[in-house]
Write a structure and sequence with these properties.
Length: 204
Amino acid sequence: MIYERLEAMVAEGRFADGERLDEVRLSQEFGVSRTPLREALRMLANAGLARAVPNRGTFVRQPDFTRLVEMFEVMAELEAWCARLAASRITSAELLLLRETALKCERALAVQDSHLYYAENASFHDLIYRAAGNGFLAEEARSLQRRLRPFRQAQLFVADRLEHSMEEHRQILAALESHNAVEAENRMRDHIRIQSVTYRQFRG
């Protein structure tokens, strides 16, 4: 939980690039001892969002936008592939679950809860990974999704992004319901690609 909060703070630009993370202040802010905080900082460094320097501390590493765009490009192709396969392989039970998850996204949108929306959004995408029927592809998609998680979540704070994201979900769901592989692939690719552009707008 502490790691995810720190991860989000980095993605939201709460820390400057190279800024030293103050363990005492953060421990007080999160209401935890320094032991779990240090574990979270270690995880942050492993994720490439910080740099641990022996005897000096942990320093923030803001991601390079070019690198982020590259990661989003790969993510777009992985998810597009998942959607294309899912269009022909998705079962009635999986479609039912996908509709239910889309409805939960709609409810989160109705109350403008970005955090809840993202949680349901993640479930929506994961269901499509599963419906693709390719375990290896699903593993790779989930791995990159975890790396991009804070940036995908942060871009939802851009004005009207929740509404646009939900409309994109509706189009993806409709394509899967009609088993239109080409449409599902294209809609999903566009849905992911726009996120890197929106994240850049979020960070100004």
